[in-house]
Amino acid sequence: xxxxxxxxxxxxxxxxxxxxxxxxxxxxxxxxxxxxxxxxxxxxxxxxxxxxxxxxxxxxxxxxxxxxxxxxxxxxxxxxxxxxxxxxxxxxxxxxxxxxxxxxxxxxxxxxxxxxxxxxxxxxxxxxxxxxxxxxxxxxxxxxxxxxxxxxxxxxxxxxxxxxxxxxxxxxxxxxxxxxxxxxxxxxxxxxxxxxxxxxxxxxxxxxxxxxxxxxxxxxxxxxxxxxxxxxxxxxxxxxxxxxxxxxxxxxxxxxxxxxxxxxxxxxxxxxxxxxxxxxxxxxxxxxxxxxxxxxxxxxxxxxxxxxxxxxxxxxxxxxxxxxxxxxxxxxxxxxxxxxxxxxxxxxxxxxxxxxxxxxxxxxxxxxxxxxxxxxxxxxxxxxxxxxxxxxxxxxxxxxxxxxxxxxxxxxxxxxxxxxxxxxxxxxxxxxxxxxxxxxxxxxxxxxxxxxxxxxxxxxxxxxxxxxxxxxxxxxxxxxxxxxxxxxxxxxxxxxxxxxxxxxxxxxxxxxxxxxxxxxxxxxxxxxxxxxxxxxxxxxxxxxxxxxxxxxxxxxxxxxxxxxxxxxxxxxxxxxxxxxxxxxxxxxxxxxxxxxxxxxxxxxxxxxxxxxxxxxxxxxxxxxxxxxxxxxxxxxxxxxxxxxxxxxxxxxxxxxxxxxxxx
Length: 663
Fold this sequence. Notes:
Blueprint: H1 3-6, H2 19-22, H3 46-68, H4 77-104, H5 111-124, H6 128-157, E1 166-171, E2 174-179, E3 188-191, E4 201-203, E5 207-211, H7 213-216, E6 221-225, E7 229-230, E8 235-236, E9 241-245, H8 253-264, H9 270-295, H10 306-320, H11 323-342, E10 345-347, H12 350-357, E11 361-364, E12 376-382, H13 388-399, H14 405-414, E13 423-429, E14 433-438, E15 441-446, H15 448-453, E16 468-474, E17 477-485, H16 492-501, E18 505-509, H17 514-524, E19 528-530, H18 535-547, E20 552-556, H19 562-567, E21 570-574, H20 580-585, E22 588-590, H21 597-631, H22 637-655
Parallel strand pairs: 11-18, 11-20, 18-19, 20-21, 21-22
Antiparallel strand pairs: 1-2, 3-9, 4-7, 4-9, 5-6, 5-8, 10-22, 12-17, 13-14, 14-15, 15-16, 16-17
Helix pairs in contact: 3-4, 3-6, 4-5, 4-6, 5-6, 5-10, 6-11, 6-22, 9-10, 9-11, 10-21, 10-22, 11-21, 11-22, 12-21, 13-14, 21-22
Organism: Flavobacterium sediminis
InterPro entries: ATPase_P-typ_cyto_dom_N, ATPase_P-typ_P_site, ATPase_P-typ_TM_dom_sf, ATPase_P-typ_transduc_dom_A_sf, ATPase_P-type_domA, Cation_Transport_ATPase_IB, HAD-like_sf, HAD_sf
GO cellular component, one term: plasma membrane
C-alpha cells in the first residue's frame, strides 16, 4: 500500500498528453514524448483557434460549388488542384508538422501520421474534396477538444491563482509592499477589504470576516476572532485587518493544496493507462492492416483496381484513428478532478476517482471528522484533598504540549498558562495521554487507560459517564477528572443517510472512550462503532475489513490517523483541522472539513467512471461497425469522418458533462 503514495507512472507512450495542458508550468514541454493538441504552448482565443478551419471551409465550399453547382471553365487541371491544396494547407500543415515531430521523437505511428497518410492518399487518387474534408473535420474536432481542455484546465487552475504575489506588511508603523515569498514568520500583514491573504497566519485584529471559497468551495462568510488561524487564499470582506504570519510562504496550506493539484496528473487511472498502452500497439497494427487491405486483394481479386483498394485502405486508416479514446478518456478524468475541486475536494490523481467509485466501506474517525472537534469543559471533579486551582494550572501547562482539540478546550477553560510552572520529561503516550514531572512529582493527564498503564487506582466507573473524560493523577494518586463535550457536525447525519442510500457500510473508529463513541454512532445510525482504540487497533480493524476483499475509504484528521489512512484503499483527510501528516498521506482532501463531501466525492468518482466507459463503448462500437463496412467497400470517406471525428466530438462533449453536473 505504501507504493500507492509514491508511485509515479513513467515512460508511458502517449498519443495525447492533455495533462501538459493542465499543469501550471507548461513552458518546458518541447522535450516531452507526447503531443500537444493545441498545437501551441499558449491558449489561443476561440476565433484564433477556428480561423484556419474557417479559411479551409470557405475555400472547400467554393471548390465544391465550382465542381458541381456553378461550373467554371477555368476550374480544371492544375488550377483545381492548387485550389484544393490551398484549402488543405491551413488545417493539414499543422497536422503534418506534428507527424514529422512525432517521428523525430521515435513515435512513428501517431494519429497525426494516420491522418496525414489518409488525406495525402486521397489527393493521390484524385479525391481532393474528401481529402480536404477529412482533415477539416479532424481539425474542427481538435478545436473542440482544445476548448474542452481549456475549460477543464480553468476549473482546476482556478485554485492556482488564489494567492497574491505581493503583500502589505507593517514595519515600524509604516505600510510596505513586498513579495509574498519574502515575508517572514512574525511579520504583520495589513489586509484591506477585498484583498486576499498571501500567507497563513493568526488574526491580530479583534475580529474579521473572510470569504473562504478558494479553499473550501463555500462562498459563505467565515467570521474569525483575534488569535484564530486564517489561511492563504482567504479574502478579507469588511474592515482593514491585520494578520501575523505563522507559516512560511512555501509551507502554507494553499501551497500544499496547489502542489497536490499539480501532482494529481502524474497518477493515472488503470483505464487511462490501458488505453494509452493499447493505442501504441493498436496504431501500427492498423497501418499494416491498411497496407494489407490495399495490396493483398491483388493476389485474389480478378478485376483488381489499385485506386479502389487504396481508397478502402485510406477509409480504414481514418476510421481506425484512436483519438476519440486517447483524448476523451484523460479529459473525462481531468473533468472529474476539476468538478471535485469546485466542490472543495482534492483528488491527488485520477486513479483515486476510479477507486472511490467502487468503495464498499467508509471507516471514519470521530473527533474532528463527524464531530466539530471543538471541545468545551463541562465539569471538573477533583478530590477535596487537592488544590483544584493548582492542579488545573498543571493540567493546562502539560496539555499545551499537545495539538489535540482537548488541549484547546482546557486552555480556554483555565486561561493563560502560569509561566512559573516548570515541567520536565514531558512525553506523549499515543492513545493514552501525557506524562511529565512537575515539582519532582509524576503528573499524568489522559484517559483512564493511562491510569491503568501506570497502576493508578481510581474509584469511579468511566463507562457510566457519556462524555469524554480527562483523568488526572499527581504524585501517584488519582486526583479526579474533567468532563469534556464535543458537538456532532450539522451535516454528519446527512452524510450517513446518503452513504446508506449508496449502499455503503459505515464504521466509526476512535481513541475516545467507547461509551461516547457508541452514543455518537447510535445517534447518527452508524452500523459499527469501536472506541478506546490505539492507532494500531485502528489499523487492525481496517485490515479485518480489507481481508474480506472489500474496499475501504478511511476518513480522519489527526496525526494518529496517518497509518490507517495509508493502509486503506483511499485515505481521506479533513483539510481544515487535519494534521499535515494526514493530509500528506491522504489520497483525497476535503478542504472545509464537511463530512457531507464524502458521498459527493464517491458520486463524482462514479459519474467519472460511468462517462469514461460510455466513451470507450461508443468509440469501439461505432469504429468496429464502420471498419467492417469500410473494408468491404460499403463505407465512404464521409462515414469514416463520422467514425473518427464525429465519435471524438461526441466523446469530448460527453466528457465535459461532468464539469456542469451538480453534486
